[in-house]
Amino acid sequence: MLTIKTRLKKGDSVIVLSGKERGKTGNILKLLPRKNRAVVEKLQFIKEHSKPSNSNPQGGIIEREGSIHISNLSLYCPRCNTGVRIKSERLADKSSARICVKCNEAI
Ligand SMILES: [Zn+2]
């Protein structure tokens, strides 16, 4: 499967570009690179039927975060209040920062 190159990282703040959660923001909990998907905090809840288990003796329906395709996600800039493109910039201490191309602030 083709893997889309992404700059998204775990913990990043993202905005959803399309789908039922469009316009909502959240933090990435987990990346699923081989599926080109990401799990975003409190978004795309799915209901899952589970059989009784030790941790959930009753079984039944549980809700958890489903994954969103990364092409539907964009890094979110709180200053611009929108999804933005970013560029990488090398800092004086040789670490690299990701800069919002709109407001030139580090994300
Ligand atoms: Zn910005």
Kindly describe this structure:
With 107 residues, this protein is mainly beta. It has a domain of 67 residues: SH3 type barrels, CATH 2.30.30. The protein is 0% helix and 45% strand. It contains no helices and 10 strands. The chain is elongated, with a radius of gyration of 17 Å. The model has no long low-confidence stretch (mean pLDDT 90).
Summarize the structure.
By secondary structure, the chain is mainly beta. It is built from no helices and 10 strands.
- Reading the helices and strands in chain order gives EEEEEEEEEE
Based on the structure given, which CATH architecture of the domain at 13-79 is correct? Roll
* DSSP helical segment count: 0
Shape: elongated
Strand tally: 10
Keywords:
SH3 type barrels; binds zinc ion; 107 residues; mainly beta; 0% helix
List the helices and strands and how they pair.
Layout: E1 13-16, E2 25-32, E3 37-40, E4 45-50, E5 60-65, E6 67-69, E7 73-77, E8 82-83, E9 86-90, E10 96-100
Antiparallel strand pairs: 1-2, 1-7, 2-3, 3-6, 4-5, 7-8, 9-10
The chain binds zinc ion.
